[in-house]
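Hi Y.,

Following your request, here is the sequence exactly as I used it, all 187 residues.
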Amino acid sequence: MDIRITGQLNGTQMKELKKLYRSAFPASEKKPFWLIQKKRREGITEILGLINREERLVGLAITIAWQDLLLLDYFAIAEDLRGQGCGAQALRLLQERYQGKRLLLEIETPDVPSENHQQRLRRRLFYQSCGMDSMDYHVGLFGVEMEIMTFQCRVGFHEYHAIFSGVYGKRFARRVTLAMKGQGAEM
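Below is the corresponding structure, written out as tokens. Let me know if you'd prefer a different format.
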């Protein structure tokens, strides 16, 4: 599938992006969309659509730029297109777009018991197949244990935490903690 990444979405595409955002992520992991849009207006966040040749929104990428770091905060492909190479192509395009930035993302760790254990394992394998590696620490992100993965770089916990302090403030950042691997996120 041939796709492109754009921040210039028409009304229909933006409506589809919001719908995909609502359906693709658990409530415990979603920021209010108004907050994402506010950070977009401040020039910190990009809300990007993954668009195919027919101008259909096939996925989304929401990024946060902080210093030389680029957090892929949310990344999703339309459910009917998963497993067809669209996600891998989109990651390559994102890596090109943000060349010179250290790219990182969070995934729910498969190292703790969960109802969606197989989905978590598949997600980790997908990102590994795209050249991403897990860092040697996990984080508690608002009570959810997350694994940090990066693309051909290292990002320490303090650098990761600085994104939240710098973008959202210290009060918000207090809810982002270093987690003991496989022990859950209750600190």
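The two ends are 43 Å apart (CA to CA).

Thanks again,
Q.
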